[in-house]
Design a protein that fits this description.
The structure is a single chain. The protein has 533 residues and is an alpha+beta fold. It is built from 10 helices and 16 strands. A 6-stranded antiparallel beta sheet has the order 3-2-1-6-5-4. A hairpin with a 4-residue loop joins strand 10 and strand 11. Helix 1 runs antiparallel to helix 4 and helix 6 crosses helix 7. The chain starts with a helix and ends in a 6-residue tail after the last strand. The relative contact order is 0.07.
Length: 533
């Protein structure tokens, strides 16, 4: 702060002080100069008017036309010399003007008596009008009126202010000019002294005011800002907000800034505490989700082959949840020695609610699959139970079938689920256009219809959830039925394990970097018949 804001403020104040001093001195210079010039001008013209009173305008020009100086001439010269001497005039002379040649001819000049070269100022000397105001004598002589303006010129006698008045005869005609030059060295000297004095006084006053202003600014602005900066640095290290008692009561925006910063620091501490609690809660939830994922995974059959002593069929399944836990599930179980249950289901929604509903659905389906009950009866019973107290309005799509192991006949019910694929031995997979019913937990009085699938040795049945067909890539394109069918047929001759692995890999390649949209569950059954082969 000391190297930054204080230095900048001081520099700005110094520049302002210099500008004020220069501006004040310039204005003062022109004001005093004009005032003194006006005083000298008035004095010069008053003296010129006084001198012209003793000049006879009727006869003055005759002294250049053959009239010899007489007593009147001597009296006029005596008075003009006295006036010039008493008022310390540089020059006082009478002349006539030749308008054509713009020359002055001297009638009388008070400098003739004391000059080292009297002939320069003698009667009858002709002089060319100077370059300073060259038209002024001609204009005055022509109009017979004195000029309102004055002018200062430099002559052999230094700087002078000139006053020119016309000498008129009784007819009002201009017969001569009276020119008066008054030395003005005092003007220059006085103005210079005044300028120096004003500069010194102004500098002292402005410097004093600026120093006082800088001190006030430092006490009221810089020091409170330094205090806020120090408090902020301390908060970074200690996380302790600045006490309000330490806030400088400046009654302005700086005080508001300090109080706002204190409140911000308190809010930061509160936010950090909340973040710590939220983080701990998330870690707890994550740990619980890990446990839930393991529990859900353990609920599904994971050991393959599941029945090594049952050579009539082979089965393999996988489930990949979109979140830690999912709503998809598959299941297979023995109902009796000759009947084998197959389940592929998809609960609405994702995450924990879907996982809980999945556990209930899976348990009810398996518990309801008692020997002697057909798939239609099992689905209707499970549907009634799921509809009870289903305030969350969740539902589940289910494909449920019972394989008669000895014959290869499957009796199935499709409760709103995806249609399965069937591959006959030596042929390709095709979609089975089966009969769809209402999903479970939608309406409690739904009646379901069964249909049959006859498998021969070497035939395969492929079940899946909508996570396969609705897999989406970064271009928002769906994987779809056609791609799924091509992928299945491209690997139809491989083992059921490799078949599912390749289909899953093809899906991953299609999706690419896009996030997984839905749970993906697949299951394939291959029927071998009663022969060992």
């Amino acid at each position: 702060m000391k190297r930054g804001l204080s230095r900048k403020v001081s520099l700005i104040c110094m520049l302002m002080a210099v500008m004020i001093c220069v501006g004040t001195c310039v204005c003062g210079y022109f004001m005093i100069r004009d005032s003194i010039r006006e005083t000298y001008k008035i004095t010069a013209y008053r003296l010129a008017d006084t001198a012209s009173f003793f000049v006879d305008g009727n006869t003055v020009a005759e002294y250049l036309n053959g009239r010899e100086p007489d007593e009147d001439y001597e009296d006029m010269a005596l008075f003009l010399s006295f006036l010039a001497e008493m008022n310390d005039l540089s020059a006082l002379y009478l002349c006539t003007v030749d308008e054509a040649s713009r020359t002055l001819t001297t009638i009388y000049d008070t400098r003739v008596e004391e000059a080292e070269q009297p002939e320069r100022y003698a009667r009858g000397v002709v002089d060319v009008i100077g370059t300073k105001g060259p038209l002024a004598p001609v204009r005055i002589f022509q109009t017979g009126e004195s000029l309102d303006d004055d002018f200062i010129r430099k002559t052999d006698f230094g700087y002078n202010i000139s006053a020119i008045v016309p000498i008129k005869n009784d007819a009002g005609e201009s017969t001569a000019l009276l020119v008066l030059d008054k030395s003005v060295p005092e003007l220059i000297t006085y103005v210079h002294r005044f300028l120096v004095l004003m500069l010194v006084v102004t500098a002292v006053i402005v410097l004093g005011l600026m120093l006082a202003y800088v001190a006030l600014l430092r006490r009221k602005v810089i020091e409170p800002i330094e205090q806020i900066t120090a408090a902020a640095s301390s908060f970074v290290e200690t996380k302790e907000p600045m006490p309000e008692s330490m806030v400088a009561r400046t009654q302005d925006e700086i005080e508001t800034l300090a109080l706002t910063m204190i409140q911000m620091e308190r809010d930061i501490n509160e936010s950090m505490e909340n973040l710590a609690r939220v983080t701990a809660e998330r870690e707890r939830i994550a740990a619980e989700l890990d446990v839930a994922e393991k529990i859900q995974s353990d609920m599904l059959p994971r050991i393959f082959p599941p029945y090594p002593n049952c050579p009539q069929f082979s089965i393999y399944a996988t489930m990949t949840p979109a979140k830690e836990v999912g709503g998809d599930f598959y299941d297979f179980f023995c109902i009796d020695k000759d009947h084998f249950g197959l389940v592929m289901a998809d609960v609405s929604g994702k995450g924990i609610p879907a996982a809980l509903f999945m556990v209930i659905s899976k348990t009810l389906i398996k518990n309801s699959a008692q020997p002697g009950r057909c798939p239609r009866e099992i689905m209707e019973a499970v549907n009634r139970q799921l509809c009870e107290n289903n305030d969350a309005a969740m539902f589940v799509t289910v494909w449920f079938g019972i394989l008669e192991i000895s014959t290869g006949k499957i009796t199935a019910v499709n409760a709103g689920h995806e249609k399965p694929l069937v591959m006959k031995k030596g042929e390709e997979f095709v979609y089975l256009r089966d009969k769809h019913g209402m999903m479970l937990a939608a309406l409690d009085m739904v009646r379901y219809k069964e249909y049959e699938i006859q498998l021969e040795p070497g035939d395969r049945l492929f079940l899946y959830t909508d996570g396969l067909l609705e897999a989406t890539n970064s271009k928002n394109e769906l994987y779809g039925e056609d791609r799924a069918l091509r992928s299945m047929n491209a690997h139809k001759d491989e083992t059921i394990h490799d078949l599912l692995e390749h289909v899953h890999k093809d899906t991953d390649v299609f999706v690419g970097e896009a996030p997984q949209f839905d749970d993906l569950t697949m299951m394939v059954l291959e029927y071998h018949g009663n022969d060992d082969e």
